[in-house]
Amino acid sequence: MRTEVVIDEAWEISALGFRYRCQVYYPSSVTSTDEEQQPSRKSEVSLLPTGHRCISQAAAKIDVDFDYDGPLMKTEVPGPRSRELMKQLNGIQNAEAVHFFCNYEESRGNYLVDVDGNRMLDLYSQISSIPIGYSHPSLIKLLQQPQNLSTFINRPALGILPPENFAERLKESLLSVAPKGLSQVVTMSCGSCSNENAFKAIFMWYRNKERGHNNVTKEELESCMINQPPGCPDYAMLSFMGGFHGRTMGCLATTHSKAIHKLDIPSLDWPIAPFPRLKYPLEDFVKENQQEEARCLEEVEDLIVKYRKKKKIVAGIIVEPIQSEGGDNHASDDFFRKLRDIARKHGCAFLVDEVQTGGGCTGKFWAHEHWGLDDPADVVTFSKKMMTGGFFHKEEFRPNAPYRIFNTWLGDPSKNLMLAEVIKVIKREDLLNNATHAGKALLTGLLDLQARYPHLISRARGRGTFCSFDTPNDATRNKLITIARNKGVVLGGCGDRSIRFRPTLIFKDHHAHLFLNIFSDILANFK
Ligand code: PSZ
Predict the structure, then answer these.
(1) Do residues 256 and 326 touch, judged by C-beta distance below 8 A?
(2) Residue bearing the CA closest to ligand 1, atom 23
(3) Burial, 407: exposed, middle or buried (Cβ in 10 Å; 0-12, 13-18, 19+)?
(4) Distance 76 CA to ligand 1 centre (A)
(5) What is the C-alpha separation between 227 and 85, in angstroms, rounded?
(6) Active site residues
(7) Per-residue pLDDT tens for 370-398?
């Protein structure tokens, strides 16, 4: 029997003077007595906090995102169970990057629960990859529908044996949110794989443009087999210092965020332009920042010309709308419009890497929509919150023959199925506007903390919930992240001293206030 319990709660967070009200629904499916059908729900009943699960008031009751009411800490993190498991895993592989082990069955909404029973407000969401929170009821329901079972258990080699509904499924998932002007889409399994294949599509496009016909010579066919021109032309992708586009060999040549990513790996002599380093607050440095952006754009053009002179042709430019791994470096919309113009002027493809920025966290589905481009990007890559990797592109970037952009899986239809549901939830719950709104609450609070603790926080910045700030140095940044984690807030670092926010799309104002309240205490007591 489906019943619905609605609880109303109101409470106050005093330190920052924020007051909020949280309406709470107890999802009907949890009340089912049929534990067999819902094994993962079994322990939930005992975990139910004394009431509160927060939900957008606009949401239909069936789409409740059930959330806990706050962090609950039992041990320091990593706790004893995590440490034991780390030791175990480290015997099999280098597991030193592991922060702690998670209990995903108990994780809900914006809260990540670890194996020691600690419940943390997750503002990092698996490096920006959880669109609508943990264990969203709409996704659980999707998986429980018998007609979807086959999609999860029979993974096809999509390039040769797609299921009947594949095109239809792409239309209701990826194509329903395609960036303006991009009618074509190819799915891949991860972000690196998406960029890697996007580069290849760009190189093929460029070569066909140069040839002006489809007739490939014998010399080209033979030389490509031994990695030589003309079959392997000396083409390049131009990238930016501080950018991150993945760790596979081609992508790594365009990744310049940390030396440790690149050390010991042979690479390609491809041009690297400086990315603007803006001064904050932006309104106080308008002229300096304009000059800085002009300097970088000039360098882009110089590099294209310089490389052409040494017979290396820049076939494409790759850029992140906000450099993420490299330290949350922003540039103005005007900078990107001009960059797009430069690409067109020199006949280079313009590739926007939306792997981290895509999916709605900036308040628009694609961060580059903020730029207002006259001529759309040529290629847009995605992964993370989109559940599946892949890239959108203009028609002219279609490979001219089958098997040219290809691999075994080419993504996974079960991810497209989940993405279609995620998109429905985003639309139904108005989550793009929510990102704008919640992001404003977060950034306003960060600016307030920056004014009160200028020795600890600077350069607070952000678009939507894609926010960050700088700390004085690496050691302070890492210490703040550790303290926050032990107080029940998971944050991420980026660059050499920034802290970044990458919450889910169901991160609401009251989560921002909850975080700000906790973090304010941390800053007040920081030594
Ligand atoms: O350390 C790592 O490998 C990390 S930490 C965060 C990422 C990778 N992000 C992945 C990423 C990205 O942010 C952008 C803008 N482009 C491409 C990628 C690569 O995606 P994956 O990791 O799925 O291959």
Answers:
(1) yes
(2) 191
(3) middle
(4) 28
(5) 45
(6) 244, 353, 384, 408
(7) 999 999 999 999 999 999 999 999 999 99
